[in-house]
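Support reply, case 0932

Customer input (verbatim):
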Amino acid sequence: MSMPIEKPYKPVPFIEQPTFENVKVFKLESPALLKYLADRGIPRNIAQRWCVQVDYRLHGKDYYAIGFENNAHGFELRSSIFKGSYPPKHITHIAEGNARCNVFEGFIDFLSAERLGLNDGFDAMVLNSVANVGKALTILPDYSVIACYLDNDEAGRAALARLRRELGDKVMDKSALYPDHKDLNDYLVATQPKISNNSKLKL
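Our regenerated output:
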């Protein structure tokens, strides 16, 4: 009787998930965080409407970041030194009761569209990662127009292709607005006047 061939052992790599402690949510007032957003072209009034400040402890050190809440009450987190998320990871769906939904890969692009006037009362879907397209597909079929402002890279094009396969001709590619830029925020920074969020002036 022949012995079964033993497959070589392949260890599964361990990926440490960040453990957040002492998480607290505040109104977005930090000058450093507002400056980070100003450098990305996002004015104070838009930032404070859609974002919060999240203070947290990670690996024994205290940090704070811009927080953008998702449908599962997790947060996308951004600062000049950190890009990540406070779980659970999920989409952010902003429903205004419109037949059109604008789709963005990340919340900085959504905030950019707010400054550029592209949302204009339309519903919005922020994927918070192209890996969340499947979650978006539980909601997007209800819309008659789906306008995609996705990144001009392989991942963005793949997400657009999947949405078109699933939802057909009602999916519109709006990246022609920024063909020479990586994403909508890069386009905003390159084409709009620079701003400062240091004053209380509503821009």
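We compared this against your earlier run and they match. Two observations from our side: The beta strands are 20-27, 52-58, 61-69, 75-78, 83-86, 92-94, 100-104, 123-126, 145-149, 171-173. Helices lie at 31-39, 44-50, 107-116, 133-136, 154-167, 184-191. Please reopen the case if you see a mismatch on your end.
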